Q: What sequence folds into this?
């Protein structure tokens, strides 16, 4: 059984930074074959995609609201993905979820949220003074 376990969330002041991690585990699981994505859901709002990265092309895509502030990355050898969040704003407050989709060869932007195979449990990020 594959599990994605997130860490790194918390309370931060506006302008601050956080780094989210998402470690994948499971017999035979190899993150390198999976597109990865970060999503978030704020209270009263629908889930939205934050960023994704393809498995084979390694190309990252970002929601316009986080471009230039967030950076997605992956360490396939460690089966771990990351989301570096800088210049955080109160509107970034949400529960953040990592996800993985078996989509080697496809651009991650072609993968719909429902097509992601595995999801983390979510980690709370609160940006407030």
A:
């Amino acid at each position: 059984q594959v599990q994605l376990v997130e860490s790194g969330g918390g309370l931060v002041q506006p302008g601050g930074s956080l780094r989210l991690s998402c470690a994948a585990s499971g017999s035979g699981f190899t993150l390198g074959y999976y597109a990865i994505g970060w999503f978030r859901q704020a209270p009263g709002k629908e889930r939205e995609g934050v960023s994704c990265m393809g498995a084979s092309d390694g190309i990252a895509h970002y929601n316009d609201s986080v471009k230039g502030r967030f950076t997605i990355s992956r360490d396939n050898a460690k089966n771990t993905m990351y989301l570096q969040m800088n210049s955080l704003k109160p509107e970034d407050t949400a529960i953040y979820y990592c996800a993985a989709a078996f989509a080697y060869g496809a651009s991650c932007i072609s993968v719909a949220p429902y097509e992601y195979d595995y999801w983390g449990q979510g980690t709370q990020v609160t940006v407030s003074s």
The chain has no helices and eleven strands. The CA atoms of residues 30 and 79 lie 7 Å apart. The two ends are 40 Å apart (CA to CA). The mean pLDDT is 95.
